């Protein structure tokens, strides 16, 4: 009989059968109160999963007719693939999470009362990243059992192809305003196709010491690019670009899918997105209930007829319908705009993360089981992580960041002078924020990226006399920047900076990882001037060892970090002082 069946027959919560092993820090399934570690099956094989939500209940083995392996099957267990008595020399192989075979018994530490029993399935700690309206969740996963809960959609080539351990990670979390589900009809437009109502780009640094959660306002006016899209029926559709529309129409409108929102984010910020996760209103209800509620604080009484939230001043623990009402509230907080709602969503997320990092959640098998079940059912993810093992790996990468080093901020915007219901980019601040994220600069006071001596040596390159713009001579190549970048840079240099002795040399002989400027020793003053104009860091300057001829130009090669002419290529060391932001470890009361 499986663990769930056993729990129901004996009146035991299945989650309570998972017991914390103090030696390993992991949870293990115990099918009987008196036994040490329960047997894991060796003869059954796990069904292949497609990464999409299954319809109908899973078959439960009949205890009278099932094989011994089937009777021991547990939720999420990855069975030995070779079968009992098969494979290499007839040996059973118990697979570890991730599919690798466990080490032979002789190579492992002996356990009490083993009697030939296989090691029990272990739940590995991880994070299910961020969910709707910035809802983050940390949890233990069981594997194949939860695969059937996951719904997946194609990235349509819009992402990187998947996160990697050796670089920064960017996960786009989209909360839709689709009103499907019980009790959701009363929230605004009941007929919404599901727009990108709440959008958070979660950026985790390459060294995993810090993270930035960037909220993108739904009412931001931006360009939506061409979106090649795989439709539900399997057909391909090229959805044309749309200039000057609201960001939220990057999803739902004209049959756009989350992959189009990914492309729009990249177009806006210059950051390539690894993965997306989408959730609707029901996700907030189920997930907040699964963790036992989230603590929030109000600086005043709130009675919002639109969001149906009625709470008194002070601290509260909210879940389910009340949590959704809190996250939908805007008219009763701040200036009553969507930007004010973004702030309380960030405060809610910080509180949820603090709770999930607490021992009360992490040491409760029941809470972890309930949370993992709710989370996998609530999410729609991209097809690159439509597998519980991939989600676990991603979660472990995200979980390594301490909440004190996670900053929530919002894309700097200004009121649209042509439409007060929308906003436009604040061009004096937004490029700095995007640049910091692209260059992995923390918004919090975490460890410095470079030693002071190295910084001083690099800064010396930029010190000294700077040539007059009219005396700067440079050839511009495209070495991996977006198409048309060399001409765009040339136009900006000539028309706005006065660098008339510049030439577009089209594509470079070879691509570069980052924009670089090659110059001779006797061109140092020109290099400093150009670096100053373009916001280039000292590391981008590549001096040669011999002087150049009188009319010889420097060589500027634009890399993938070049996103827009006039946008600084090096990130500032700190964010603009007056941008909205809050750290995840700070408790803030909604005003």
What does this structure look like?
The protein starts with a helix and ends in an 8-residue tail after the last strand. Strands 5-18-13-6-7-8-19-27 form an eight-stranded mixed sheet, sandwiched between helices. Strands 23-22-26-24-25 form a five-stranded mixed sheet, covered by helices on one side. A four-stranded antiparallel sheet has the order 1-2-3-4. 45% of the residues are buried. Helix 5 (281-290) packs across helix 6 and helix 5 runs antiparallel to helix 9 (365-378). Helices cover 23% and strands 23% of the residues. The chain has 591 residues and is α+β, with helices and mostly antiparallel strands.
What is this structure's SSE topology?
Elements: H1 3-10, E1 18-21, E2 26-29, H2 68-71, E3 122-131, E4 135-141, H3 144-147, E5 151-153, E6 169-176, E7 196-204, E8 211-215, E9 221-224, E10 227-230, E11 236-239, E12 242-246, H4 258-269, E13 275-279, H5 281-290, E14 294-298, E15 302-304, E16 309-311, E17 314-318, H6 320-328, H7 338-357, H8 359-362, H9 365-378, E18 380-382, H10 388-399, E19 406-410, E20 413-416, E21 419-425, H11 430-438, H12 452-460, E22 473-478, H13 485-496, E23 501-507, E24 516-519, H14 524-534, E25 541-543, E26 554-558, E27 581-583
Parallel strand pairs: 5-18, 6-13, 8-19, 22-23, 22-26, 24-25
Antiparallel strand pairs: 1-2, 2-3, 3-4, 6-7, 7-8, 9-12, 10-11, 13-18, 14-17, 15-16, 19-27, 20-21, 24-26
